[in-house]
Amino acid sequence: MTSFLKRWHKQAPKKIKINRPEFSKQEPVAAQKVEKPETLTQRVMKKALSGIGVKFGLVWVGILVIAAVFAPFLANSMPLVMSLHGQISFPVVHYLTLEDWVVLSAFGVMVLVWLLPIRHHIRVALVLLLTIPAIVGLLVHWKMPPKPLVIYDDFRQAPYTQADWRIMPPIPYAPKDYLRDYGDTGLEAPLAAQERTHLMGTEENGADVFSRMIHASRIALSIGIVATSISMVIGIIIGGLMGYFAGWVDMLGMRLLEIFEAIPTLFLLLTFVAFFGRSLYMMMIIIGVTSWSGYARYIRAEFLKLRKQDYVQAAVASGLPLSSILFRHMLPNGVAPLLVAASFGVASAILAEATLSFLGLGLVDEPSWGQMLDQAVKSSTFNWWMAVFPGGAIFMTVFAYNLIGESFRDAIDPKMSRRAGVSA
Amino acid sequence: MSLLDVRNLRTYINTHTGSVQAVDGVSFKINQGETLCLVGESGSGKSITALSILQLFPKGLVSHPTGEIWLQGSGLLPEVLHSPKADLAAKRLSYAKRAVSYYRDESESTPPEDSVNLLQLSEEQLEQVRGDQIAMIFQEPMTSLNPVFTIGDQIAEALSIHEPELTAAEQESRVLQVLDQVQLPNPRERIHAFPHQLSGGQRQRVMIAMALICKPRLLIADEPTTALDVTVQAEILKLMRKLQEETGMGMLFITHDFGVVAEMAHQVGVMQHGRLVELGAKDQVLNHPQHHYTKQLLAAVPDNLIKQKSVVVEFKRPALDGSIDLKKAANQPEPLIQVRELSVWFPVKKGLWRRTVDHIKAVDKVSLTVEAGKIVALVGESGCGKTTLGRAIIQLERPTAGQVLLESTDLTQLSQSQLRQWRPKMQIAFQDPQSSLNPRLLVETTLTEPMKVHGIGHDQEERIEKAAQILEQVQLKREYLWRYPHEFSGGQKQRIGLARALVLNPRFIVCDEITSALDVSVQAEILELLLEIRAQQNLTLLFITHNIGVVEYLSDETVVMYKGQIVEQGSTDQVCHRPEHPYTQKLLAAVPRLKFA
Questions:
Q1: Does A166 touch chain B (CB under 8 A)?
Q2: Does ipTM surpass 0.85 in this model?
């Protein structure tokens, strides 16, 4: 508080502030500047996060992550906790699926890694992030009894209604709960029905739109992240080898890359859907496998530049193995532009999925934003709430990722950072 | 009456963390026909002093709390001098002075007659002074010329601004005249040449011609020969002396090389941390330096190190039973590395099918023997293939033909994976301290990773201990293991680079111009360090350099390369004092040296 007041208190005639070098020292002035070590990563992060756009983007993505991870707890027909004849039970937990467990455990590990001081050991964090959800997934797969078919209407009958007390999720409708017990339900505008609250209305089968929106964010996020990860891994390996070896490896790699660039992702997806049916995982893999070319180009260009750097040559001269030279000495120095490209890649993967679903070739039973838009178009009358909310969500998500990507790109490029006003 | 009179000049560079005193109270005078050499290490403020004179700063970057720069006879018309703008500038300056005068004791001095204070001129007035009265030559001839204009256009541009009354024909004759003056061969054809068609030395001549076209009375030269080879440097220096005699211009010559100072200067000013610590006539400063910093600097010049060498080496070698070792070396010289008919050719590819039409013969059938425990210096000008040869010996560049025998194994026949076992025996240290260390890795990781790969040390702790010992050996602190490269100065980075080469207990290290990017005092420390390590570990060094002073100080044998071939090799004493090949003779004659009375 005092410091805040002091700031208002104007100081007496200001003397020119001088960083006077110490004359006794035999060091050049430039050497004395590096007192507070600030790594390049820290500086870029600080610059990138200082803009308004990126903050908005991160907040939106944060909301999406929370919604996606805790979707069953946020929007579900079954109570979170209830007490029946003095016995407390957790129906939601009972009905969690394998995917729910994996997603929740991955999120838990991420939070732990962030809170515990192990976050500096990226390798440990990555291993934890991959192994623990996998173990949890296997455990759930082997140990848990097979799930009974969920009939949502049951939750609105005894014994659930006779509970002593119960806590329902904020949105008490599951995405596939078509409210059949209410009779002939159908389209309802937001807040139109008196006996029930549907914040975003219902679609033509009677399911709550808000609930579907929340559950659909899982698909949007996971397809963006998984597809981009796949394409980044492929891009880094192929681009890295091209850049490091140059010569004929580079030549062959570039031709391969051009072949993949010539494949239109959307048509490939359409073909695969037609032949092999609809699967989220296949979509992820196809989008990942066809969109690595941009990453490979970035990494190749960086590695071509880095391979002549003295420290890389010194690593070669020390007889270090190729994997160490590529991934320890070169990759950390050349990965920055890739991360920028990745955030744009996430946005385009989300768009690709939305497009497919919109065309009616997406997932059948799981709600997704594109599929909801498709529903809006196909319904006999135009219902604004069915189009605006999923469309807005797609727009906002793609926009948020683009904002994040742009601010990181500007932070890396010193010329742009000044123009974009994100520098201090 | 002096041509330029700089009084108590202070230049502060404004950064967002405060201002840095780049130039701190510098005063000097330059007379007609006289050369003042400003010497100092990097960061001492010599270039900023020069830029202050011409006011070549972006707006708002610098401020001058005090200082006057009087240029005698500016050639500006009186009505130009007293424009409202100029008055405003003068007023602003006086305010600025008043603002700082309360904490600085400032005695107003009387301005010299018939002079203008360059600090008080407006931008328009300065434009008339720049190029016309005061001209400047920059360090890097490769980037100082605009690549899309012919050199004739670039030289004539200044003329068309300062003397617009000239006709095109007159302009061309002036350009030809000045090109003739700077002794550019075939000026009539070269006038239509583009910069890339000229060599480095020729470009620097063009730069000088650009500076001289308006017949300035003061020439500021900021390290004009630093980027050039010694033979070219010698020609340029000679040319500049000749031009000064002809035109009688004053010169402010900025350099870090005392050899150049000895050749060029009338007066010498030594700068340290923005201050002029010593100013005087050349002979006095070079032979009887008063300030201890000047003494240190002069003592660090390789020419002077030679005198101390015998003392240093004797002093630092007592632990080693030198007599036995020396005898052994003398009686049975054991060749560690034998290079036989080694060639490295780079293909030149042309046309649609990228067919190889020609080769650049970077190294062409070179044979060389390096004996164990010796320091062999590889000397030559830029582009002569000395770096390529060094890299080809340790197999960083796979040779086109020939053999490299290390302990009688032919390295050129080994595959990359077979080579990996041989890598620890031969290491390399690089020229550029900025790029020689991985910025993302701790010093500890940089040092211990190679040890781990080659199975030196049982566990990580043992390796860290060894790395710490080696850091101490290169005279750095143990704690530096836990720092990142950007926290070090250039000299420290070079030491870490050496430490990285030493961790694998190599037999042989290629030092590729490791001192070229360093200041003389740091260079002297690194050179001493090398001699010491050699004495302790019986290392063999191939020291690649273009600096003859360093060669004389450091090496036992010297090899001279010219255009990819070895023209002379032998003991350093013989090569440096009784050179046989004409190229070696030319090279040695071109080296600027400190001559003492």
A1: no
A2: no
